[in-house]
Amino acid sequence: MKRRLLFSLGTLAGAGLAALVAQTGVLSRAAAAPSETYRQLGLFGDVFDKVRTDYVEPPNEAKLIEGALNGMLTALDPHSSYMSPNEFRDMQVETQGEFGGIGIEVTMEDGLVKVVAPVDETPAARAGILANDIITQIDDDRVQGLTLNQAVDKMRGPVNSSVKLTIRRKDKKEPIEVKLTRETIRIRPVRARTEGGDIGYLRITQFNEQTYEALRTAIEKIVSELGQDKLKGYVIDLRNNPGGLLDQAIDVALLQPMRGSWR
Predict the structure, then answer these.
(1) Is 260 inside a domain boundary?
(2) Domain-terminating residue out of 58, 90, 122
């Protein structure tokens, strides 16, 4: 859950910092910073000017500031970070649980995009993309050198638009080229089944905007299938859940099962 919780906390930190900078009236009423703090801020300004004027190549000033903000927040604890506007937009897309894409869960390995798993009933699954496939090119552009977010952005896009992937698979000598048409991808945050005739199994894959209602629906279905007299309890599977929206996680934690108990 670390990655998503980091995003959420980073959003709060970034938003709080933006508010602090914007509300000059609040700053003017705050207690004066110690002289050592002002000295350190002056040092930051000196280093920024030195890098901006004397670095071997003209730097991107916005990236320098963003890096400084992120460094300040990551110094607080391992779970806080600054989110750029693009990163915040990407997080909103993910937590909505619906976007235009091809339907694969990916990670970065040795500078290339590795498929964790295709999502059921999506263009990627129908095209035969498999777990552990390595994506080397997206629309003939090399993936090497891109960040994971940049690669994901290139695979997402408007519904009915197309994207071509070049894939390296262990048991194939030649690269595989697959052309996919993007569709509306809806992430199912909850999967459910019954076990042993008296246990409800609930797998929560992420905490997006649909998680709480999906869990309630799954519980109702399990109760209907087994009957309240037979149902002994539930097993909630959170393995590999990357986290997500804090309010959804709280709602799930406070949800009382209709019958039985959480395990």
Answers:
(1) no
(2) 90
